Amino acid sequence: MKRYLPLALILGISLSASAQDKKIEKKIDSVLKLMTLDEKIGQLNQYTGDRDATGPITNNPNKLKDIRDGKLGSMLNVRGAKETREVQEVAMQSRMKIPLIFGLDVIHGYRVTFPIPLAEAASWDLAEIENGARVAARETAASGVHWTFAPMVDIARDPRWGRVMEGAGEDTYLGSKIAFARVKGFQGKGLGNLDAVMACAKHFAAYGAAIAGRDYNAVDMSEHTLWETYLPPFKAAVDAGAATFMNSFNTLNGIPATGSRYLQRDILKGQWKYQGFVVSDWGSIGEMIAHGYAKDKEQAAELAIKAGSDMDMESRSYLPGLAKLVADKKVPIALIDDAVRRVLRKKFELGLFDDPYRFSDVARQEKEINSAENRKASLTMAEKSIVLLKNEKEILPLSKNLKKIAVIGPLGKSEKDMQGFWSIAWEKDNLISLYQGLKNKVGNQTELLYAKGCELADSSKAGFAEAVAVAKQADVVVMAVGEAFDMSGEAKSRANIHIPGVQEDLIKAIQATGKPVVVLVMAGRPLIFNWTADNVSAIMYTWWLGSEAGNAMANVLYGNYNPSGKLPMTFPRDEGQIPLYYNYLSTGRPAKNDKDTRYRSAYLDMPNSPKFAFGYGLSYTTFDYTDLAVSKTQIKPDEKITVSFTLKNTGKYAGEEVVQLYLQDKFASVVRPVKELKDFQKVMLKAGESKTITFTIDKEKLSFYNQQLKWGAEAGDFKLMIGTASNNIKLEKDFTLL
Ligand code: GLC
User: Fold this and answer.
1) pTM, whole model, 2 decimals?
2) Model confidence over 608-620: pLDDT tens digits?
3) At a CB cut-off of 8 Å and minimum separation 6, what does 654 contact?
4) What keywords tag this UniProt record (predicted)?
């Protein structure tokens, strides 16, 4: 029985919300009235702390003096209940006593590290992803930090770009759902709660489309692609109530995002009516000089503030530039006031004016940080993020009766690499490597052998002989290869995305022993490993899984958790295919690799198809898709189609399947992709269990941006496809929109 709140209460809640807003606006007015121009500009200025600097440092010995003089509104990279309290105390010595907000890159966990966001995306488990952000928020808030520079919601179709690790992959629908979940996770029941932090949707916008996958490079795309592919996850973040946005380093069609009025004022603050504030990315305001868009810092400051970039992170352009620009009547004070208002609003909402130290509580920090509950959440997320790519000869799951297992490879005992590039507050205690995870699992029941075999990136094969000798003593070999923590991430673009060094040669040498081999690839991006993919019987993609990495891998290897991950990005065969993504447009000439078709859109030297497709991932069990039924095959624009089918677990293990709904609009005023993900469900079934799965198709799912960038659906013929991967469609049906 659905319980309805009494109208009075609903009205009361809504009234109290707007009454609350009105109260805060009055308080902002009263503070604004008392501030000097310099103090206003100070609120738009953000410096980094020196401990965890995350960008090019500008030495500034008198930061504390600047804070005392009211020249700073925020600090990043200051963390800890004690440390933040100390810095806040300095801010309370300023004339206006306006509290600082402390920001930090909590990208995938704070003290307990979670799997990298791209790995979490592979779980397709929105509730789990939201919970991961919730846990990170609790630990972050307990450490005196008010604001995380996450989620990164950049769609990325190019694995040469090292920052793919921070996002949710190539698909707009999945990326939008995950953006929403992460913002909700970080902000919880709302700002002001002591376990909530401000989210920051970044990098606005289209940073993931850097030409040639080279970080910070120019981005050039049609407005249609911008609206269709890259903006929706940001809109999802707005809809989720993201407190802040961060703009991006790149130019977009010749205009630096930081100086883009189109992005920040027309779209974000205009069409989307965004009330939060925009922080620049590290130094990006000043970098408009290097872009060739501003002649000096003063002009950079003018362009940025006019474009809607509210806070200046570490470029030192707003201070002192803005005061002179106002004096010279180049920048109206109203623009400054609007930006300051946005910043002060968040400080009121966080409750910092009531108590500037409310988040800086050592006792609460000790209780929250690294708790067993937080570690359990990280373990669960890690298990769900693992993607089983291959499992022939039923090598997996491993048997508990094995006498000897050899762990071989440069990442077998690594703890630090499992934390990924953007983990900022982990400690060395209790990080679980693959080896340790297996040790925890098998105890003395199975003997664990180990050989590193080779380094991650050098050319020496000196360790191969020892590794082969160790492998020969074992019943099964588990190999740990991939990338070091700093081979993916910011400023970590790679033109060659093969598994680095001689690691794949090591795999070949171990494979030659004839022993059963399981290869675990641990990386921050899709890598290329064609020989391994073709010749090794069991392969898992385990990304970088965080604090509990080894326990998660052991649980999946032994079947305590049946792997359920699906790839959130396409894995190419070769760098020459990039960009390669599943929702491509059809071509006038056949895009197929048969020699008989002379005029074909295909490579002479390799297939068009990827090595592993978007949405692909295996399980220890198998699933059957049958009995597709649709409520109608013709609908009017205001009608819906109910699609149902039977999913059956036809194997011998309970397991989860991510069923994916793809749609194709066969003919339209703007050519549509051959397929687009429009819905998915992650379904747990016991061995032998069947379940009826239902999807609803409505006009929204059929809509797209037309040539005039107007969102809507057009009458015509469509195809619905239900699959276990984008390249493995199980059921399909045509239908028409009238
Ligand atoms: C970095 C990153 C951005 C991060 C910021 C603060 O350069 O681009 O994602 O939030 O600076 O560390």
Assistant:
1) 0.96
2) 999 999 999 999 9
3) 562, 621, 684, 685, 686, 687, 689
4) Glycosidase, Hydrolase, Signal
